[in-house]
Amino acid sequence: MDSSGPVGPGCRGGALSARPECSPHPSDSTQLVQECLKQFEVTEAQLRQIQASLLGSMEQALLGQNGPAPAVRMLPAYVGSTPHGTEQGDFVVLELGATGASLRVLWVTLTGTEGSRVEPRSREFVIPPDVMLGPGQQLFDFAARCLAEFLEALPVHSRTLPLGFNFSFPCHQTGLDQSTLISWTKGFKCSDVEGQDVVRLLREALKRQGVTSLSVVAVVNDTVGTMMGCDPGLGPCEVGLVVDTGTNACYMEEARHVAALDEDRGRVCVSVEWGSFGDDRALGLVLTPFDHALDLESLNPGAQRFEKLIGGLYLGELVRLVLAHLAQHGLLFGGCTPPALLSRGTLGLEHVAELQDPSAGTARVLTVLQSLGLSPGASDVGLVQSVCMAVSTRAARLCATALAAVLGRLQHSREQQALQLSVATGGRVLARLPRFRSLLQETVMLLAPECSVTFIPSEDGGGRGVAVVTAVAARLAAHRCLLEETLAPFRLDQEQLVVVQAQMREAMAQGLRGEASSLRMLPTYVRATPDGSERGDFLALDLGGTHFRVLLVRVAAGGVQITSQVYAIPEQVAQGTGRQLFDHIVDCIVDFQQRQGLSGQSLPLGFTFSFPCRQLGLDQGILLTWTKGFNASDCEGQDVVTLLREAIGRRQAVELNVVAIVNDTVGTMMSCGYEDHRCEVGLIVGTGTNACYMEELQNVAGVPGDSGRMCINMEWGAFGDDGRLSVPSTCFDASVDRASINPGKQRFEKLISGMYLGEIVRHILLHLNSLGVLFRGQQTQRLQSRDIFKTKFLSEIESDSLALRQVRAILEDLGLPLTSDDALVVREVCQAVSRRAAQLCGAGVAAVVEKIRENRGLEELAVTVGVDGTLYKLHPHFSSLVADTVRALAPRCAVTFLQSEDGSGKGAALVTAVACRLAQMARV
Ligand code: 0WK
Ligand code: BGC
Ligand code: BGC
């Protein structure tokens, strides 16, 4: 710096000396003084330029487009859930960083009733300089000891008190209690903290110091605490402004404008971190040599340039540098530069506040200067005050400019020209420099005239606000525990799944041996999968899934052609009489034949009948019990093919040759087997669930012959109906079972399939609603109605491509009054329920493929599983979770899952084709 500018500490030619350096009083002093102070004047044009540049940086950062050195950071503060006003309880707040070399501990009691306040108890602890610059552990241990000391005198009574950590530094927050320090500011520079989660560091320190009565539930930036502490009676504060040792602001931004967040509804609090504005030279036009000198000697040169123009930590230093400059140029203190004026930190905020206080008379100013080791003359008072005024005026106007930029952002974000809002303010610069406050208001009105701003000084530096955020965090943390507790039984670990696999193997063996077992292991009389030589036209029926279909299946050399028609099975038919049901089926067949010009033709027909049937032959199946919402009378215990034939018989002029009845699992296996000959397992995960596979005939009791294989319909939906399934049954499963038309039956199915998952979720949501975790505990009528939460919602809500906003849309269509937190909770519930279903299904498939491998005495087995069913096909993660579980539980089986394209109708036709071919060969 040239001789005309300020000098570095100490004296010319090097080392600091106690003896003041003196220089002659220049003739043109007034002009020199004017020149010097003029540097601190910022014109309105410059302010507007800074305002525009800052607004530009803010919007760039919101879009996630930060340059190499982000001008401002725009950090989401995870405070979206605004206080209900009902928050109550005792909270401890630890404030670190807001007020420089001290930390404050507060005990805040929230009454939960508007207007009634309990004065917080607080204590300030001075932080030794070596602690502010030493190892991070030392700083956090110091904080923990202060907390312990503070609590000693207070009625803690072995409770665990929620602690809110007011940590006033730039942090990437990833949760209300997770925050990574980006960089220190304001006189702090502890090692091993930047890049770390400061909540973890505090928790570890509390542990090391044996403080067990505190649980850290939230970390909050001081601007957020200031905004949240704003008395709701004075109107919602949507901006929090702090000017203390450092400076910063936060405000409520539309969530959809924050690229870093996956949310578009509602608002979220964003900490601007404007202290770093200008680090990319945007401030070049207003920075003075004094600012550069201050920056060079600071702990973080080149950083926080904007803060160093405004923050209370720097105002005194700037004044000192100017006073030193003026003294060295003989313009002050008789041209003598006392050592005090050359040593950093001599002048603090309180000095500037006193020196510039217009009501402080000359005597007072002289006293203050003498207390600093200076020997001022009366003539110096005016100049010293002007210097203080120049520095703090610039600070106030620049702070106002930044605030005006934030207001401009709010105008953009709310698409409102005129804005009326309250700004909560905190910090000693605002509190101690009255001129600062008035200049701030004036300049804001100048730069943002359309905004009518009410400034609301925070009464306790944001302590109450931090307590409110902590209360909200505590509430969310408590909700998180309740949610974890509720969902824990749905989280199955590998060990539990291995047990399920073993229990299924045991039940399979018992079922095959014809012993009592919840797995009926029904022989299907399908002995082979298609070999591609099948030919002909076949009719097929597909009953039991979401849709009833009639199909015309043409099997030719070139492949299989299918024409099909979906028909509805009204509930009153599905739950009417058997006669009604089968007459309805024949009506559909006749309608189909007419549409396809097949009337009068008697094509071989394959009947996919997706219910448990004991087959006595390919075309004989005794219905054992209805499942999946069907309950037609006079059918159970009857041969379904007979019932169909009788219905055909009741209909004049209809000729149909029912050749085979197959289960949809068998149809699916056959249909996929036509494409992939290794397909020896059929799996359905749709309305219901079930599996079949090719078993060695010798293992099938009750079916003559012991060579070759036969397809076994496991009817695994009933697995566990004998109580031998160790998977914990939750009260929600019990509610779904109780409300079903077949209580106590199809236990495994009711844990897995599409007919039930939505209902399980609905019951869990009702439970969480009753606990106050969801929908603010408000009763939601809509959720009381059965089947209102469709299983397809799970598939939609869990889709990765669906942002939270779409989750909300689905739920709002259900008329649920939800917050964004609620949408997250609902998604988590859906994930837990579908994950359990997929894992259990995977454990079942693992049991089957291991059985086949062992049947064949193979080290390794490569097998294909043909799959169908809406849940398996539409759910975004179900199929991969099933495959992961099978890989984990049957590592020696290479399992390919082949989704059936044409459903099991084709399979039924192929079974019919095989039967016809075999019958043909038998006749030849
Ligand atoms: C389509 C098949 C049908 C089966 C259904 C199961 O063609 O046989 O019953 O899948 O899935 P859902 O329709 O129950 O979801
Ligand atoms: C920090 C901010 C804080 C402000 C006021 C700045 O140095 O980066 O996080 O809000 O000081 O304390
Ligand atoms: C039935 C099975 C059928 C499964 C899938 C179950 O309810 O009992 O026969 O395979 O649903 O549709």
From TrEMBL:
Pathway assignment: Carbohydrate degradation; glycolysis; D-glyceraldehyde 3-phosphate and glycerone phosphate from D-glucose: step 1/4; Carbohydrate metabolism; hexose metabolism
EC numbers: 2.7.1.1
SUPFAM superfamilies: Actin-like ATPase domain
Hexokinase N-terminal domain span: 33-230, 483-674
Key words of the record: ATP-binding, Glycolysis, Kinase, Nucleotide-binding, Transferase
PROSITE patterns in UniProt: HEXOKINASE_1, HEXOKINASE_2
InterPro entries assigned to the protein according to its UniProt record, in alphabetical order: ATPase_NBD, Hexokinase, Hexokinase_BS, Hexokinase_C, Hexokinase_N
UniProt keyword annotation of Chaperone present: no
UniProt family annotation: Belongs to the hexokinase family.
UniProt name for this protein: hexokinase
Native species: Echinops telfairi (Lesser hedgehog tenrec)
